[in-house]
Amino acid sequence: MTADPTYRGFALDAETALALLQWQAELGADEPCLDAPLDRYDQPERAEPVPTPAAPAPNPPDTALDLAAQAEAMAATATSLAELAAAQEAFDGIELKKGARNFCFADGNPAARVMVIGEAPGEEEDNQGRPFVGRAGQLLDRMFAAIGLSREAVDAEKALYITNVLTWRPPGNRRPEPAEIAVMLPFLRRHVELAQPEILVLMGNTPCMAALNRQGILKLRGTWTEAFGLPALPMTHPSYLLRTPAAKREAWADLLSLAARLDGQG
Question: What pLDDT digit, counting tens, does each position of 172-191 carry?
Fold first, then answer.
């Protein structure tokens, strides 16, 4: 399409107009001008945008301290192990509950002199709703059987009572997180108070973190300490012994120390 503008009486086609424009640009004309001057100071001011009201801030999520306080209140109402189990199972302040199959409270004889505290349920424990029933649990049974203790024993002198810091399985059997330990700690403390064992066995880093606020099980193991007001013996977890068979020698020494304590010799 051919334009038909005029320049000082001469008709311009599109090509000529473009050539003139390029020539003016070469001369330094870098801005187009109107036929009449424009007073930009006389332009109307731009209207300020009307602010929209801010949306109300959402309520902050429950903090770990809030959840721990809820757990403390629920645990305190329990006057028996059955009531504690019901309260802990009803507690919704831990995300693990949403992904686990079963609640794993405890196993063995609640009247036992020895209470074993492990870390958390694994896949087999999650399927059965009982702690220490997988390969590590089977090794645990053999270990304590060697010093005359069993979770099936009716006699409290020869019995074991077993639980974990966490009663719900972490996804992928990952290690429990500090926040999860803190939220479950009131239930664990009340569990020990209601069971009233004479001795605690802390199997692994997680129960040592919960009961002693310390980690480093390879340094802690074999040394008697106090947890929840009771004599406590840290030991390496059976799952570690399955991965490191050479450590079974030290675990045997710990079991002998436990047996001596039960016999009044420790």
Answer: 989 999 999 999 999 999 99
